[in-house]
Structure formats: C-alpha cells, structure tokens
Amino acid sequence: MRTARRGRTVTVMTVRQKAYFAFRGSSAGVFLLSATVLPHGAPAVIGCIVAGLGGILTCIGVNAGGPGERAGALAQGVVYAKVRAPQGDWPPFDDRKVIDGELTG
Known about the structure:
With 105 residues, this protein is mainly alpha-helical.
C-alpha cells in the first residue's frame, strides 16, 4: 500500500531562488564570522549590522510573484476586462448628431 507524500518537494530551483539562498546564506555566514572570529569592537558590530540588513532586505521580496500574490490576479483581470471602457472612437457616435452637448436623432 502506498502512502501519500507529505510536505512540499522542490524538483527545480530557479535562478531567483538560488540567488535568494546564496544571499541569505552569505548573510548568515557573515553573522557567524563576526560573532565568533572577528575581534570585538567595530569590525564585529559592522559585520553583524551588514548581515542583519542583508537578512531583512531579502525578506522584503521573498513572496514577490509567488502563488499567494498571484492568487486573485486572473479573476481580477477578467472583471477588469468586462468593465473596461470601449476602445477606439469615444463617444461612439457621429459628432454631427451632437447639438449643445446632447445627442439628437
């Protein structure tokens, strides 16, 4: 009997994901180096600040373009297409039929 697979599996990593993990990994590495190897004082503080800023800045765009962000995009686009003003000549009637701003027969 087969059991259902639990959890999420990633088969292919995009370039964006690789860059994200590399940047986060380097931030963690800089933090560990500044906390353990660098001499106490300004170099360690600067290393911790740079690593913290790197970690925070990568969190800002972590979900950009992900499925959570695109969840309602298709439905919203369909609604916008239905209510969008007609394209082309506007108003859609001949200017000779408009007298003092009113349409005449």
